[in-house]
Batch of 3 targets.
Target 1
Amino acid sequence: MRKFLLSQGVSEDLLNGVDEFIEKHELNEEYRYRIPKIKYKYYGKKTWEKAIAAILSGDNILLSGPKATGKNVLAENLAYLFKRPLWTISLNITSDPSSLIGSDTFKNNEVILKKGPVYEAAEQGGFAVFDEINMAKNEALSVVHSTLDYRRVIDVSGYGRLNLNDATRFIATMNYGYIGTRDLNEALVSRFLVIDMPTIAESDLEKLFKENTNLNKNAIKIFTKLFLDLQEKSLNSEISSKAIDLRGLLSSIELMNKGLGIRDSLELGIVDKTFDSYEREIVTDVIDTLFIKNIERADLFEG
Ligand SMILES: Nc1ncnc2c1ncn2[C@@H]1O[C@H](COP(=O)(O)OP(=O)(O)O)[C@@H](O)[C@H]1O
Ligand SMILES: [Mg+2]
């Protein structure tokens, strides 16, 4: 990971800070399995630097931006980089305080606390992701206000208070720019440093294809253009973000590599991710423009 980050241009001072952080904070071996395994690396030097610096300074971060800008990928990459166990909490309108902190449960005729993800992350020095935090009701989140600010405590009525482990950090994600998103209340935003997530740069996308596929130079250009064109259409609200799926695109490329035709592969990984026929047509049009009729599978891969 260090090598990758250096090749991205991430400052060595920050990476030394990461090493110190890892050295300083013990890990409970029982939770090692929660350190995510990374299949896809996050690309974007500036964002990496902001996120690493914020974590080193003891801050929580809010990743905000359009869908498919790699917010979850970055959150997992961060837990992996800092070697901390990760808890991801998907928030929605029905999320309540007990789904974060925990709830009463019976064990051997005794009432005990069944620890929720925030509680466990607080104890174990984990990173906890509040995924799509703006989907939750403010009341659900007000219980973690004291957890997220300088007090760094969890108050559980009946169980006393827990001071956060030094290594604990919270990473919230928030999508904006599509219907159904709510704004986040100020009290909450003030407890995070905000990282505005950029869309992936063309040069980074090319690097990503180079490192994750055996496409040839020309094909890398085509697939890069495909992703960027679809992304632009999504940002302009011509289509939803369902087809803006880099993982799906990489899977399509793998299918082609295995022997499935170009168009069938793209249907599986991209086109049919959206269930709206009008949207599918737009996506298919973009594909037709970039992949000329007589292009063959074999033309795409390194010989
Ligand atoms: N900068 C980036 N680096 C790596 N992958 C990215 C980047 N931007 C987008 N992606 C890809 O976009 C897709 C969506 O990523 P995800 O983390 O789920 O986005 P979000 O949570 O922002 O909606 C994934 O396939 C991811 O690999
Ligand atoms: Mg997400």
Target 2
Amino acid sequence: MWGVAACLPLLSACSGPLSALEPAGPAAASTAFLWWVMLAGATAIFLFVLALVALAFWKPGIGRNVPPKRWLVWGGLAFPGVVLSALLVFALLTGERLLAHPGTPGLYTVEAHPTRWAWRFRYEDGRTSADVLHLPAGRPVDIRVVGSDVIHSFWVPRLGGKIDAIPGHVNTIRLQADRPGAYGGVCAEFCGVGHPAMKFAVAAHEVGDLEDALADLPQEGR
Ligand SMILES: [Cu+2]
């Protein structure tokens, strides 16, 4: 009871515009689920090891009948082998859901151009915005992150995973916002003195409202 009460202030820090533990889309939700599974598993293993240590103090010699080799094989090889293999499969399946598979119906595409130390976004109709990313809610959105000057990293924690911007390359990440709303995004790779301020806002609109939001933005050629 007191342990739960002590944890509440910590858990209250798990929300907010940049919290990956408050997912607002399917990719972020599967990442957050993986995180909770890992936390639960790590906690269970930690408590199990603590229980073994406590047992050793409480009843000295209780494990004497088990040969050391058996402890090593089962506790040091079999147990971590099974746990890590299961985790690997689970993480790979989760990662598969984050990939930008081509041919998805209803897909919307935005280019992200990070430069020291600002974000510029270019939409399908050629309009651009600075430091605000407009998205349609309820639709998968591929962000094509175009690298230019140095390595940056695109990350909207509540909507999906992060992806690096590598100079000379275009990396794509798929996001989806389940509902219209305001979310936060950051550069997640140290890129120089302006890095801490290299943030952007994400505005997810009702599908019909996106055109209105983009209407006043400047239009640029490629
Ligand atoms: Cu940065």
Target 3
Amino acid sequence: MIFDTHAHYDDEAFQEDREGLLAGLKDAGICAVTNIGASLASCKTTLALAERYEWMYAALGVHPSESAELDEAGLLWIKEQCNNKKVRAVGEIGLDYYWEEPEHEIQKRWFVRQLDLARERKLPIVIHSRDAAKDTLDIMKAEKAEDMGGVIHCFSYGKEMAREYLNMGFFLGVGGVVTFNNGKKLKEVVEYAPLSSIVLETDCPYLSPVPNRGKRNSSLNLPYVVDMIARIKGVDRETVEQVTWENGMRLYRLS
Ligand SMILES: [Zn+2]
């Protein structure tokens, strides 16, 4: 059984065939998916999906690149939706310095506010951090993010940074990048991190693994990621599936 801990099935890339695709996941061994909100609009569509499918869960939050849209009313709305039992985490939240906008101060302010929200709602966090390693870690330490726990999604930093987050009890999200020829850094992190701290994710429709790199991604591609992790760890595929399944259940506090 495979747990896709980070997907965006509300994305317009799935407009044409969403229902059929989702209906076929169970037969392919994909037995749980967490759909992740990234803007206020996608939090709404994420909630609708999680209400519709019994095996789909929701994380609600505003992505750093969308954080300029946030205001007190938006934050309050997210907070209220967190009472819904299908909402298992706050995210994706964090910092993204790859893009110029919004300015860092705006990203930081709403990152901190959403960390506060997670603490208040006693929910784990789904972190997005790109080209912002130091500021992300500084804020998470200052805010005692280890109290909430959660996942560093699409982990893109090196072993040193991995150690910091593992010491704080965070999971590392691993997806298609681990199969890329230029994915050496992530392969080293997977080798270094205990399997009990790794969760599978697609970030679909993005980041399709080899041999489907560049095409639209979906949870159906996760066996390629499982294969690569199994090879790096020197264990069989079943072990990777089983342990990462249990990790996904622990991450989102499901039983
Ligand atoms: Zn995402």
